[in-house]
Amino acid sequence: MSVDLATVKRVAHLARIAVSEEEAQRMMGELNGILGFVEQLGEVDVSGVEPMTSVMPMAMKERDDVVTDGSKADDVVANAPVSDRNFFLVPKVVE
Amino acid sequence: MTDLTRLTIAEAREKLGAKEITAVELTDAYLSAIDAANGALNAYVTVTPDKAREMAKASDARIAEGKAGALEGIPLGIKDLFGTRDVHTQACSHILDGFKPKYESTVTQNLWNDGAVMLGKLNMDEFAMGSSNETSYYGPVKNPWRAEGSNLDLVPGGSSGGSAAAVAAFLCAGATATDTGGSIRQPAAFTGTVGIKPTYGRCSRWGVVAFASSLDQAGPIARDVRDAAILLKSMASVDAKDTTSVDLPVPDYEKAVGQSIKGMKIGIPREYRVDGMPEEIEALWQQGIAWLKEAGAEIVDISLPHTKYALPAYYIVAPAEASSNLARYDGVRYGLRVDGKDIVDMYEKTRAAGFGKEVKRRIMIGTYVLSAGYYDAYYLQAQKVRTLIKRDFELAFDAGVDAILTPATPSSAFGIADEDLAADPVKMYLNDIFTVTVNMAGLPGIAVPAGLDHKGLPLGLQLIGKPFEEETLFKTAHVIEKAAGRFSPQKWW
């Protein structure tokens, strides 16, 4: 399988990365190079093989449902590029 | 007076304990070395001298009170991937511009609890994506090694290139690193240092910037096998904050160093003999086999038939997980923001400006292979192949093999800005051909220096072990180290 320019632009939008025409062109070649490389996986017979979900077999850990942390609003927003009174500020999203 | 930076961790521990030196003296020696060398090598992206001296002073006080921890007063460098409270933590990416977390990663907290001293944060490939440390926003790290009679700058490998270079150039006593496809073992091999990627689940991932969560594992890079064992003992823990942290006690790894390997069965996988592999890598491998045989190990040929599919499967699984993990960098909660005409435009411009080329490439691949209509063909197929890769190892271990010996890398260190590699991303990916299988199967792997090539550059061998049998790797690697000796670069910086 290979990708065309329109697919590259669609994927870039899905990934929320702005790309110029020139970048999309360059990426198309690179992505097709990588997709060509991974294509060989198709020749492996995987009939009856379970996909790996956990590399170390283990039961999911459970912990008590109690509050162990909190009241750190200042810390939470400390690294925000824009914040106001412990809210993250973003451009308007509702008309 | 002897140069304190030349002491191994084990030697420094002894001198500190005997009060022959102080932690402050040791830390000051490293800070001066960094001052003199970092302009040339670019191993550190941030140095924290005030914090280091303060921590060293506290160490001296604890030593005086007889309350020294296992790493008391030992100055370490920390890969920029580990969250360190109020200190630069950016995974060497521009998108985390100015980020200083309000928390400490479990691994680094474990080190500080044992008395270690932080010298600063180490350079790395952006988000640990790379094999040469050239994708860092802060520029490439230079390998302290150069070919004989050459002034050409070489890469230290990656992604833990800053960690490996700093250890090799005596700019820290040891360093933390992480390994998703070979990022501890390949740079260790390129710099003549020892690096171990422990079993998946041995070191907590909590507070470490995520790349590919099912593959990422922290481990140390050190000057010798004993130091690597000492560091891993402190880094590893059982952590309730990481659900994949495995509930097993951490052994005293150092005890394994020096133990006999008599009667151990070492597997030699025929699939690791790849086309175009330099003759001297093959010769090094044979030398390693001979050393282990002399030490009483039994050598057996084994087959790991799905080896060649590990790298292509990795380049589906790792980018898929990365595209998901890196979705959080959107200009809202931390790091860089580039304004746009609406919120989506802001996301797209922020991510376009904040991520470098290699990171974008991998996010794109990941987004594509997870997108509707392609998931089964790529991602599901790769996860099935991953099951087969792990099964190959299980069959070998079931047949009685205790550890597997392979080359660590297909070549010695290459030049910075190598044109061939820059032109073809897949060529760069092939650097991890011997290391990536270990991540796919979640196994422990250690790279240990075994010799120099015809250019005078270090080459390493890799040992792969059963899950949670890091002790086997330490004792076997120590046999190689004893036979091969240790390797240090000629100072040119």
Concise synopsis of the structure shown:
The complex is a heterodimer of chains A (95) and B (493). In chain A, 35% of the residues lie in helices and 4% in strands.
Explain this structure.
The complex is a heterodimer of chains A (95) and B (493). With 95 residues, chain A is mostly helical. Chain A has a domain of 38 residues: Orthogonal Bundle (Histone, subunit A), CATH 1.10.20. Chain A has a two-stranded antiparallel sheet. In chain A, a hairpin with a 2-residue loop joins strand 1 and strand 2. The longest helix of chain A has 18 residues. The mean pLDDT of chain A is 94. Chain B has 16 helices and eleven strands. In chain B, strands 1-3-2-4-6-5-10-11-9-7-8 form an eleven-stranded mixed beta sheet, with helices on both faces. Chain B is globular, with a radius of gyration of 21 Å. Chain B starts with 8 loop residues before the first helix and ends in a 9-residue tail after the last helix. Chain B is α/β, with parallel strands linked by helices. Helix content of chain B is 39%, strand content 13%. The longest helix of chain B has 23 residues. At the A-B interface, helix 1 and helix 2 of A face helix 9, helix 10, helix 11, helix 12 and helix 14 of B. Chain B: Belongs to the amidase family. GatA subfamily.
The chain pair forming the largest interface, with residue counts per chain, is: A-B, 51 and 73 residues
Query: What is the count of DSSP helices of chain B, taking H or I runs of 4+ residues?
Result: 16
Task: Examine the coordinates and then state which fold CATH places here, giving the name of the CATH topology of the domain at 5-42 in chain A.
Answer: Histone, subunit A
Shape of chain A: flat
Reading off the top of the CATH hierarchy, the class of the domain at 5-42 in chain A is best stated as: Mainly Alpha
Pattern of helices and strands of chain A = HHHEE
Q: Using the CA coordinates, give the radius of gyration of chain B.
A: 21 Å
Task: Give unreliable regions of chain A as ranges.
Answer: none
Average pLDDT of chain B works out at 97
**Shape call of chain B:** globular
Which structural class is indicated by helix and strand composition of chain B?
A: alpha/beta
Per DSSP E runs of 2 or more residues, the count of β-strands of chain B stands at 11
CATH architecture of the domain at 5-42 in chain A: Orthogonal Bundle
Which oligomeric state applies? heterodimer
The share of residues in extended strands of chain B comes to 5-15%
N→C terminal distance of chain A: 41 Å
Q: Could you give the distance between the termini of chain B?
A: 22 Å
Helix content of chain B: 25-40%
- Overall pLDDT level of chain A: 94
H/I helix tally of chain A: 3
Rg from Cα of chain A: 23 Å
GO molecular function, one term (chain B): glutaminyl-tRNA synthase (glutamine-hydrolyzing) activity
Organism (chain B): Mycoplana rhizolycopersici
Function (chain B): Hydrolyzes indole-3-acetamide (IAM) into indole-3-acetic acid (IAA).
Keywords (chain B): ATP-binding, Ligase, Nucleotide-binding, Protein biosynthesis
